[in-house]
Design goal:
This protein has helices spanning 19-27, 70-83, 101-109, 130-141, 160-170, 188-201, 208-211, 239-246, 251-265, 288-293, and strands at 5-13, 45-51, 54-60, 88-94, 117-123, 148-151, 213-221, 227-236, 271-280. It starts with a strand and ends with a helix. Helix 6 packs antiparallel against helix 9 (251-265). With 296 residues, it is of the alpha/beta class. Helix content is 34%, strand content 24%. The protein is globular and about 55 Å long. The protein has 2 domains: 5-170, 3-Layer(aba) Sandwich (Rossmann fold); 188-293, GMP Synthetase, Chain A, domain 3 (2-Layer Sandwich), CATH 3.30.300. The protein has 10 helices and 9 strands. The structure holds guanosine-5'-triphosphate and magnesium ion (MG). Belongs to the TRAFAC class TrmE-Era-EngA-EngB-Septin-like GTPase superfamily. Era GTPase family.
């Protein structure tokens, strides 16, 4: 195959800047979950963009931050490991917040990947005036010599094709790395667990979002061959948090279950029935053994 490029790009940046939203928008399918809470993404999630002239494997990573728990450290480790193995790094800063110490800290970490090409992506571009956007681009430009700088909006589909083109041009000549119909490496089980966590994140505040983990206990296919029963655990750190997740008369848990079932139904052809239990694993974010059990 001539003139075909393929390779890896990772989106890095502070929590909540829109890395996962951008990943989903470019891939054209919900690969990674989204929320307005920081630290929504907890693993390196791969999404694959297919074009006639190439293939981009996007590795969406957890937001980089000053860690306060062992979980926080593990999430930063995921980002460092990813930086070492990609062709292109897309450093994301949001248009609606000034470039600050958190961004400068992450920018310094990019030195770990001397060979990777580096572009700056100014996200959420539709939220600010032209003047503010221009000022932000200048600030970002001051951080280092970028291979490119591009403002985008995943919410309003602004410059997404441009970004795809820029990334593709920086990738090596290569045969396709994935089959042409594959959009992610995530398994059904992993995606289902994440969609339950996304539903559970809605409407909770403060420390609780960080305390929520989700595990899949069992998936049972019914005799009809098309219906799958998912038995899922929402794990929190304290009894009080368990009460909040369940809600008065089980009202919140019912809403979580319904939303999760709706979302999971969209990623599979068959019918899905979700059952959720809420469990407490004391201080799991700080406990190496429990972290291991939860997959971190
Ligand atoms: N207005 C606007 N909001 C956006 C855009 N992209 C993302 N958001 C919002 O920003 C918030 C964070 O989005 P995520 O994609 O979860 O951010 P992230 O960088 O992946 O966050 P972590 O995984 O926690 O590091 C969500 O509320 C999104 O809806 C955008 O282009 N415009
Ligand atoms: Mg994310």
């Amino acid at each position: 195959m001539t003139n075909y490029r393929a390779g890896f790009v990772t989106f890095v940046g502070r929590p909540n800047v829109g890395k996962s939203t951008l990943t989903n928008a470019l891939v054209g399918e919900k690969i990674a979950i989204i929320s307005d809470k920081p630290q929504t993404t907890r693993r390196a999630v791969r999404g694959i963009v297919h074009r006639e002239d190439g293939q981009i494997i996007i590795v969406d990573t957890p937001g980089m931050h000053r860690p306060r728990t062992l979980l926080g450290e593990r999430l930063n480790d995921v980002v460092h490991a990813t930086l070492a193995e990609v062709d292109v790094i897309g450093f994301c800063v949001p248009a609606n917040e000034p470039v600050g110490p958190g961004d400068r800290f992450i920018n310094e970490q990019l030195e770990e990947a001397p060979k990777a090409r580096k572009i700056a992506i100014v996200t959420k571009a539709e939220t600010v005036s032209r003047d503010v956007l221009a000022a932000r681009l200048v600030d970002v430009q001051g951080l280092r010599e970028w291979d490119d700088i591009v403002p985008v909006s995943a919410a309003e589909d602004i410059q997404l094709d441009t970004l795809t083109g820029i990334i593709l041009a920086l990738l090596p000549d290569s045969e396709p790395l994935y089959p042409s119909d594959m959009k992610t490496e995530e398994s059904f089980e992993q995606r289902a667990a994440e969609l339950v966590r996304e539903a559970a994140l809605e409407g909770v505040h403060d420390e609780l979002p960080h305390s929520i983990a989700v595990t899949v206990e069992e998936i049972v296919t019914r005799d009809d061959g098309v219906t799958r029963e998912l038995y899922v655990n929402i794990v929190v750190e304290r009894d009080s948090q368990k009460g909040i997740i369940i809600g008065r008369g089980g009202e919140r848990l019912k809403r979580i279950r319904e939303q999760a079932q709706r979302e999971i139904s969209q990623i599979t052809e068959g019918r899905v029935i979700v059952s959720i239990r809420v469990k407490v694993a004391k201080e799991w974010q700080r406990d190496p053994k429990q972290l291991g059990r939860l997959g971190f």
